[in-house]
Hints:
By secondary structure, this protein is mainly alpha-helical. Helices cover 59% and strands 0% of the residues.
Amino acid sequence: MADPTEHGIPRAVAIAWGMVQTPQRGPSRGMSHEQIVAAGIEIADAGGLAAVTMQRVAESLGFTTMSLYRYVSSKDDLLLLMQDAATRLPAAPWPPEEEWQAGIRRLAGELREAYRRRPWLLELPRNQTTLLMPNSMAVVDRALSVMAPLRLDMSQKVAVVMNISMMAIAYAQLELELSGSSRVAVDPAGLSQLADVIGAERFPALAPLLEDGEWIGGGYAGASSDVDVELAMGLEWIIAGIERLDAAGGA
């Protein structure tokens, strides 16, 4: 649980927004919140989230663990700050002439790429505190800017942001889970045996997908290109729904 300030604002949120000053006294005054977060991210990138400890972060900066606690009061706060920093969107401005449909596709792609680049992010929970962090706010702000021309009300636009964000994260998670050592490699004879066992009598609607074995042994088992296609299809369905809603004036 994030340690709250005296006004109820979670401490990690206050640190991320620059509301907490860097300690000016003591042997650790050479540190900054940004350095601490960067060190934590570097450790997570190299060894996964389990490798991140307050002691190891402090040692990587040449300070004691007690010194680190003067800046970040708990590991939970550190993880929240790392999560926020690691999901920062690219700073490059978007083309002003870009249509909202292209903007939604671009936003989904950038979000998914952040989680693909740092899979340890998928292990961290997303909650109300997360939504108050600067880069979560930046995602919402950018999405609302993209949808400015639409005749949807604010609650509808926020729902679109939520769906796009969760879809991008879910597909990053799916790709991770269906890749690498978890991917199955069944030979043609094995695929034929599976098709016989599954059978058209038990699953008649599914049977046509099993005829050539591709559904089991091909992209469904984790090829990233197929995940790309499925995410793109999902986005197009969302975009089509938004277009229809916008044409109806948001009704």
